[in-house]
Each structure stands twice: as C-alpha cells, then as structure tokens.
Amino acid sequence: DDIDVCIFSMYRKYQSTHTRELAEMNIFNLFTPSSFDGIVILKDTIQTSTSSNNIENRINEIYQGPVLVINRESEFFDSVFIDDYSGMCMLVSHMIEKHGYKDIAYISGRKGHIHSNNRLQAFKDTMTAHGLTVCEERIHYGDYWYSSGEAAVNEMASSQFKLPEAIVCANDYMAYALCDTLVSHGINIPGDVSVAGYEYIGERTEHYPILTTYRRNREALGRRAVMMLYDMVNGTSSGYSFSTDGYIVPGNTCSCGADYRQIAFEVSEKKKQKY
Q1: What is the reported pLDDT for 217?
Q2: Which of 75, 78, 195, 249 is the most exposed place for a label (fewest CB within 10 A)?
C-alpha cells in the first residue's frame, strides 16, 4: 500500500545539557496530530524527564485516531515490546559458559527504567541459575550514556574489591566508554578483564578491541508495530507474527572475535580513509 510516513525526532537520544534537551524537545510541538491517520510513539527514545508523558497526554487529549507505543507501557494506548530479558540471559550465559567467568560485574541503566529492570533481572537470574553469587557491590547504575561507563570504572577503582573477571554493560554506549577508561588505566582487555555490551549500536569498527555485544532484532519489532498500526487504522486483523530474538555478535573484548592483528589493521585503515 501507498503509505506516507512523517518522522519527528530529537537529534540524539541523550543530550549533553538540559538547555539543549529543552530546545530539542520543540520538534514534538511542530506536528498536528489530527493530520495523521495513526501515530506511533517511540517513547523510550525520549529521555528528557517527563517529556514523553507530556507528549502522550497531549495526544490523548486532542487526538481521536489509533496510537501505538513502542517499548514502554502507556496509560492510554496499546504497547508492543521487544524481549530484553532473554537477550541479556543469552549474553551473560555466553560469558559464563563460553569463557568460564564467575566474578562478573554489571553496569545497569537508570533505576526504575523498564529496560534497566528487565536486563538487570536477567543478569541476576542467569548468575543464580549457574550457581554464582550476585554481589551488590558488583552492580553499578548509570544512565545508558558514555559517562556512565567512565564513572563505573572510577567506582571500581575506589572500591575495596579487586577488578572482576568480566563486566557486562546494559548497552554499548556505556561499554565503549568503560573499555576506553579501562585502557587508560593500563588495564588490558580481555587479558585483565573481559567486557560485553548490549544493543549493537554499530560503532564496533571505530573501537579497539572490537566489542562483544548482543544485537536486538529491532527490525522485527518495527515491522510488527507497523502491521499493528495498519490493522488499527483499517479495522483489520492481519495475524502477523514475529520474533524479536536476537543474537550475540562476538568481538575481542571477550576474546571471541578475529585475530587481534587483523582487527588492528582494519581499524587503522578505516581511520586513514576517514581522515
């Protein structure tokens, strides 16, 4: 079918200053809901405090058409979710079963955030299922941005506990910064400590060593959301089924990837082409 799509988005999910956040949020005041047959809200991409709720409230008050929310619960509208729990279980199991790590630290996202809760619970459950103790001192909380990875390393450095065997991060942004900070402290990856990220944001070839991570099937979630909204708009039932099962993308931060020398060469060549 011939479907026109308009996308209203902030420049990036996480802003560097509060002033910039407020300025970027104005993009969501530019559209008139009544001009559209249906609306999808990617609520989790809007990290500015209370803003996503304000958008929901506005749409609920003035819009009569179908609305679908992705990856977050909604007081007013239907929601569709991706399975983060199973993915994190797979990633933590990989670190335990493939590499034999027992002392694993975890860098979580914001406390109370739905994805943070699901991923953290998956970490705890997987550790317990393998007979491993979950030490609260090994759990650090961030906000999914680079600065959280750096802060986690500083917390570990000031802790009475020795460095863990491995560190699993709730997303790749924190994992990249964590790796950079560990290296700046003279800590070898994966010789001294292994690292794994989550989400696969696609910056792997810009960093060395290349990050081991879990790739979520966001494409399947997007297709499912479109089909659901299409059915809501047209009063149909397509019966479209989907699986958001993802997979582990191995890298060198847990010694699963290609030869170190080959990766170093590829990264070096990319940088030459870039500059």
Answers
A1: 85
A2: 75
Q: Is 262 a residue whose pLDDT tops 70?
A: no
Residue 97, helix vs strand vs coil: helix
* Per-residue pLDDT tens digits for 117-175: 999 999 999 999 999 999 999 999 998 888 889 999 988 887 777 899 999 999 999 99
Q: Which amino acid is at 261?
A: R
Distance CA 74, CA 56 (A): 8
Report the length, in residues, of the chain: 275
Model pLDDT for residues 54-108, shown as the tens digit of each residue: 889 999 999 999 999 988 888 999 998 888 899 999 999 999 999 999 999 999 9
Query: Taking phi first (over 0 means left), then psi (-120 to 50 degrees means alpha), and beta for anything else, what does residue 50 get?
Result: left
Tell the residue number behind the tokens 């292994």, with chain if given.
194
Residue with tokens 């988005």: 9
| CA dist., res. 87 & res. 250, Å (int) | 14
Work out the pLDDT band at 264, boundaries 50, 70, 90.
low
pTM of the model: 0.78
**Which residues lie below 8 Å from residue 211, measured CB to CB, with a gap of 6+?**
172, 175, 176, 179, 195, 196, 197, 204, 251, 253
Please give the biggest Cα pair distance in the chain.
Answer: 61
